Amino acid sequence: MAKKEKFNSGNVFGLLRLTLGLIFLWAFADKWLGLGFSTCFNNKTGMTEMLCDQSVLGGHSSTFDFLNNLPKDNLFYDFFHGLATNPMADFLFMFALMILGVALTLGVLVRVASVIGILLLATMWASLLNLNGGTENPLLDYHVVYALALVGIYMTNKDQKYGIGKWWQSQDIVKKNKWLE
Description:
globular, single chain
């Protein structure tokens, strides 16, 4: 008789990793191509316009609208608003989304992706920090929750199911360089 596998933290964090990977992969694809949920959705017509002017391939900045429209009472407004026209901010943002999406979905480079993700999410959280009110909790939002999830994913990477992580971790280069796990 085959032994029935228990649903354990490896399963839970594997599913969490896969889910977050798909969230970041979608965000990357939407910004890049304009798939229409946060990019290229025309509120007037109710239609999605693939590859519209708001997509990266359409020539638009991936960060400009967000950074240019931050509330002026944000604690770090001057810093983040100053990044609104910086091409390096666009590149780093899109690179981070791509690495997070691919690595977390496949289960490779999970440690690197987790650190990149925590830094990205902390930056995004700080860009929205507003202690003068608003509709959400001034200190905790989904950026903090996702970052904490990435800490758990980082810590349980060896035990995670789903994806090609076990194969990846068995490669000689990864065995010699644990940071590549």
